[in-house]
Task: inverse folding
């Protein structure tokens, strides 16, 4: 999970000239991982990515897909507000959600039931201009889900499992890249997000970039 600063909203050190023929992308984050994801998705000399830093609008540890998407959407929309001259605005938010197996039968006698079957997932919210009809379009895509160890969910969540401790700001992992740790380095967090973005791009109007 990327840290959400409560500091005054500000632009990152990245600057842009919005050169003719260049696709300018505003990313609602100053995270190095997220910027690499976007840059590698749009791997072209005619694309510039500008990272912007501001509070995310959701707790540091989003719980549930709805709250996770809310954070991603806020980031994209805020990026559009701060960088209106861009052509694409992207928000990326990681959160945790619970999904039990189809054949699961709840056990009310199990005190750890509420802490089982949790996953980490990344939501990517994209706003872009479609030159064909001069309209703004929005797309949402999700990364693959990473199972979260029960010891992490027990440490992170309140007893009812509905929110994270510390007013929603206790993350399930203190690591910037728990995905790498849990996959023994085989699949770092960047790859989970990059795979999702590349899959989206291949079916979008940006396929030829």
Result:
């Amino acid at each position: 999970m990327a840290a959400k600063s409560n500091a005054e909203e500000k632009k990152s050190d990245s600057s842009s000239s919005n050169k003719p023929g260049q696709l300018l992308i505003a990313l609602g984050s100053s995270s190095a991982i997220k910027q690499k994801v976007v840059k590698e998705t749009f791997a072209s000399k005619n694309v510039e990515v500008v990272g912007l830093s501001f509070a995310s609008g959701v707790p540091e540890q989003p719980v549930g897909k709805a709250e996770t998407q809310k954070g991603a959407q806020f980031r994209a929309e805020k990026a559009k507000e701060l960088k209106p001259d861009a052509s694409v605005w992207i928000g990326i938010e990681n959160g945790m959600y619970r999904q039990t197996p189809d054949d699961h039968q709840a056990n009310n006698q199990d005190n750890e039931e509420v802490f089982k079957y949790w996953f980490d997932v990344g939501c990517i919210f994209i706003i872009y201009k479609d030159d064909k009809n001069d309209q703004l379009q929005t797309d949402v895509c999700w990364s693959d889900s990473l199972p979260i160890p029960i010891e992490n969910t027990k440490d992170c969540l309140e007893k009812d499992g509905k929110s994270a401790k510390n007013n929603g700001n206790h993350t399930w992992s203190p690591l910037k890249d728990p995905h790498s740790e849990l996959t023994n380095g085989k699949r770092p967090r960047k790859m989970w997000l990059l795979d999702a973005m590349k899959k989206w791009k291949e079916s979008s109007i940006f396929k030829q970039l």
